[in-house]
Amino acid sequence: MDLRDECVTFKGEKAPADHISSALLAPKPLPSPSTALKQGLAAGFKKVLRTEEDSPSPFPGVLPGILEMRVKEGSKIRNLMGFAMARMQSESGDSGRAGLRQVVFAGSGRAVTKTITCAEIMKRKVGGLYQLTKLQYKGVQEVWESQEGGESEMTVHRTVPSISILLSKDPLDPLEPGYQPPETHTTQCPHPSVSASCFFSVFLFQYN
Q1: This model's pTM is above 0.70
Q2: Domain ranges in the chain?
Q3: For every one of its 208 residues, what pLDDT tens digit does the chain have, with 9 covering 90 and above?
Q4: What are phi and psi of 102, to 5 degrees?
Q5: Which end of the chain, N or C, is surrounded by fewer C-beta atoms within 10 Å?
Q6: CA separation for the pair 20, 6 (Å, rounded)
């Protein structure tokens, strides 16, 4: 279990407040997971709850009613894309409402790769989309309970990388960090997800 920054508290203890925060700047990583967490996992603890800290949108000034797809580790890409594609491609006469102009795919931790995949599928299916990619860290809280009975419980506060990808049919600010223009047939590579994946890999490498 790879943890970049985490704090473990057992039931009855108070968690440090500074471990529940979202930072645009990378937090200082710890050299390794804490001994308490290792001992807890070895003792047969099971994760029963995971909550993410609410954070402001990294895209100020987006259109009202924008579609935000929150990608989770267990999300099915087919279900996500079926809903998102229907909203982005619908016409006024089909469902009584015009298709959306913008969509955001957002995910954190192990859902990052799936988030990038969803955005790349959308770009291939709906041509001419402008893109903004934002990377940051997000605070999460996990509750672990013992599988051996009793009331043993521990809470893990940690910081995980997250990614948000805005796709828009309308032009975006080309000077905004993370901007990508629409792909063309002459510049599109056989594996369009490579650029986004490499971008995120460099982000992780800088703070490892």
Answers
A1: no
A2: 5-57+65-206
A3: 444 455 555 554 444 444 333 333 444 443 344 555 555 555 678 888 888 888 888 998 787 888 999 999 899 999 999 999 999 987 644 445 567 899 999 999 999 999 999 999 999 999 899 999 999 999 999 888 887 766 778 888 989 999 999 999 999 999 999 999 998 754 444 444 445 554 555 445 444 4
A4: -140, 150
A5: C
A6: 10
